[in-house]
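Build the 3D complex.
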Amino acid sequence: MNNEKHGTIIKVSGHMVVAKDMQDSKMYDMVEVGNLRLLGEIIRLDKDKAYIQVYDDTTGLSSGELVYPTFNPLIVELGPGLLGNIFDGVQRPLEKIELMSKNFISRGIKMNALSREKKWYFIPNVISGDMVEPGDVLGEIKEKKNIIHKVLVPVDTYGKVAKAEEGEYTLEEEVVFLEDGTKIKMYQKWPVKIPRRVKEKLGFGRPFVTGQRVFDCLFPVAEGGSASIPGGFGTGKTVTEQTLAKYSEADIIVYIGCGERGNEITDVLHEFPELSDPKGEGILMDRTILIVNTSNMPVAAREASIYTGVTIAEYYRDMGYKVALMADSISRWAEALREISSRLEEMPGEEGYPTYLSTRLSNFFERSGRVSCLGSKERIGSLTIVGAVSPPGGDFSEPVTQSAMRVSGAFWALDSSLASRRHFPAINWHRSYTLYFPLLRDWLNSRINPDWEKNREKVVMILQKEAQLQEVVQLVGPDNLQDEERLVLEISKMVRDDFLAQNAMDSIDATTSLEKQFAMLDNLLFFYEECKKVIQEGVSIQEILDLPLREDLSRQKSIPEEEFVEKTHFLKKEIIDKLDKIQKYSKVTI
Amino acid sequence: MSLLTKEYSRVKYISGPLIIVNYIPELCYGSIVEISNKTGEIRHGQVLEVSEEYAVIQVFEHTLGLDIEKTFISLLENEATLGVTKDLVGRILSGSGKPIDGFGEIIPDIYLPISGQVMNPTSRERPSDFIQTGISTIDGFNTLVRGQKLPIFSGAGLPADEIASQIVKQAKVLGEDPHFLVVFAGMGITQREANFFINYFEESGSLNKVVTLLNLASDPTIERILTPRCALTIAEYLAFHLNYHVLVILTDITNYCQALREVGAAREEIPGRRGYPGYMYTDLATIYERAGRIKEKDGSVTLIPILTMPDDDVTHPIADLTGYITEGQIVLSRKLYRNGIYPPIDVLPSLSRLMNNGIGKGKTREDHRQLVNQLYSCYAEGCEIRKLVAIVGEEALNDSDRRYLKFAQAFEEKMINQRDTNREIGETLKLCWKLLSIIPKSELTRINKDLISRYFVEIMEDGVESPFL
Ligand SMILES: Nc1ncnc2c1ncn2[C@@H]1O[C@H](COP(=O)(O)OP(=O)(O)OP(=O)(O)O)[C@@H](O)[C@H]1O
Ligand SMILES: [Mg+2]
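Done.
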């Protein structure tokens, strides 16, 4: 008989297994299930019975097989080797699995997340005699060409350094010794469902710059803040998340493919190693960590994936980095939660989701933030979270969208009708909002241009005016509008097509610096003001529309960043000259 | 592959497609069992739940005539498998993969689990080979590539079958003579529909390249749950063991989902939207995600599922969840169809997400992407104006608006309405430029100036009217 401590399966239903004789186990402990020793997690205890969600397909499992407790919750390994890597929802390294089980993932594979063979060159930051506390930097490793990995003192560890020597080590070797006998390795473990500790959460002060005009200009999110992107299928959630991963100002990107497509991950794996990091000379893949649990992978591991991702993200934040986490899609995580809850026969809440959905969701989003990291020296890190939401039928009144709306500071609503017109990013400017702008206003006005806020207000006003006018047009037709009103319609069309729309597939248009964003918009608004003037002088709107100015303005987006300053200057002059000419001409004819 | 185990008569109760039996030691989750009754009729079922007291078995055939006392259960295999071989090509099989064409049994090379295994995302190769279907609205506007899953969203009475079979006939990969096979799976379709496809394959001489699986409307509903899985198991074998490019057509997904709903209801699960199970997304994903390519393998599985949107409603869970999983969708429009436009593909809600990988320089043409973006935007604008005209009349329009209106008209008549001609991609692109001549050149701002000067149809310039005005 088996001497290992164990329970016995009494029921298998899908990925849910019930086992008896489990009285020593705790909630959320990991267990190994059945002859294949599939990984699972205890999600309910009832006397000696444990309800277990299994992270693998359970086909072939039978009652009577054994369950082996580990007495530990789901943990992730945090250390060098995370960057550039790709893991499943419970941090199994997919590239290594590929070496073992070929193109298809076989069940029950267990493997260390981080390589135990690879050697890293450790350079200590401390010398013997130094006092250290949790969060202090013990040393550094060059994890990737441009990224330094900091080895931190684990929580609850205080003491005086006895020895710390530079050299090559594997992860299982100790690199720092304290006088009390504590030995510290280059990696640590952390339970995923518990947020990593920080000294203090700080306020928001600067934007998370995305390079996307509609976000940076109209609906900015703060660094350390959170945003949700709800939208029906094909409206552009994934492209937006990937575009942010490519171009936003972050040091580290954690990208979670949660219940989505395999080929989208292939895209990332194909593109990221070829794109250069927007800031350094390195490649994008080097600062990226992928957590992938595609839609056809086991549901329970999907539920775990966002916790695995956010814990890794917090770990790099603790080193003082600006980290951005992209989760695509939160709805698939919520559905996994729903599936598990219904197998537990819990009382369902709205649309069958468990009643604790919004608590769990806010716990997740609350792990974002700009923080003062643990440690005796001052260090600031941030974690910005952007979560995609996939509402059934594109209907935003459903529980996941509503919960996400409540907990995230920016709400970027995608719109199917914009997407079908191929207006991308299909952000609906009337439904979207941000709570961060008041906190970012000063930074934008002082760092980019004193007119930033003013211009933003003008755009918002124009778009609102357009909506009102369109109602009128629907009733009486466009030819009953005044020229000034028609001008508003023309300008707002330009704002939409030539400024808010941004083609992620175009090499120049894909990302725009804040300076260029400002200039583009400023030119459009300048054009508007000048047109207003000449119309008041009696020039007709048709005369203005016949000018080539509109085309020049709409081609602003294809001007490369380097040439921009010069060309926009020229554009304003053109606007004045050309409008002047028709004004004089029309005066003459009068 | 019978394991020849003991027979048990332990039925506790029978309800709809489910049999609940008292504890049988051999059964495990997912086992396939043989069910026999006193008349000797053999049925099959799969274990959905096991416990130390009972097991729940889902019967693939109907449960008519089964009783509590004289129904015997024996274990057939621990997991549902299907014997596959190249010899399946040209054959007609039942919805669970057994030959029904009277040409005898097949001798399998290998038995594979029909639920398939999860492809490791790191092993996937990016689908990027352009498949020319000869249909402009697909090739030009919603390009299909090898390894893609691209469904057709149809409505009752719309010609999805015709379009699918046209694709089968015309599909080709530019610059190659493909190693091309088709797996066709009909789920809950009528005999008439089945005949349509079989005749079509016969007449076009492609029957010897097709594996056909048929679960007809009159066949057991629950068998439908196996059909797409069997089809994909065969397809994966042909693609990844034997290096063929396999096009899989699954019709009709709506019938499949209804079978899923039936099982859910029998198990007394809490239903999700419109009564469909909450796990339908995951269930459909385990089917659709089997399309794809694998690194360093020559074969591919391209998937075209066809579904009928109840009441033409795209927000219906079947269409909605499909759209959330597949890499785009081809949407048929009743309005176009009524106006006599064929194929009635509405490009605005249609989408191919893998299009960018398959088009452009070296694949189709350098101007393809921008050109199509421009046409999309013009057509959308034209449609908006058309709506406006319906309210305020055409007189209220200015000259520019009229051009867009004209453009939308011409787009539908010349581009979409190609009847059953087979258009080369070059022809489609040429037509695109021609149509753009209706719009003033200065408004073509989605295309860069270089491309315009290279491709714009100059004859329309300087006073000479566009052929479509
Ligand atoms: N910024 C953009 N620029 C250009 N094209 C875009 C942009 N955003 C989206 N698209 C187009 O829209 C398509 C669908 O986008 P995407 O795959 O991101 O949708 P999604 O919202 O993630 O859908 P799903 O919920 O089904 O995953 C893309 O394939 C692309 O063609
Ligand atoms: Mg997506």
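The radius of gyration of chain B is 25 Å.
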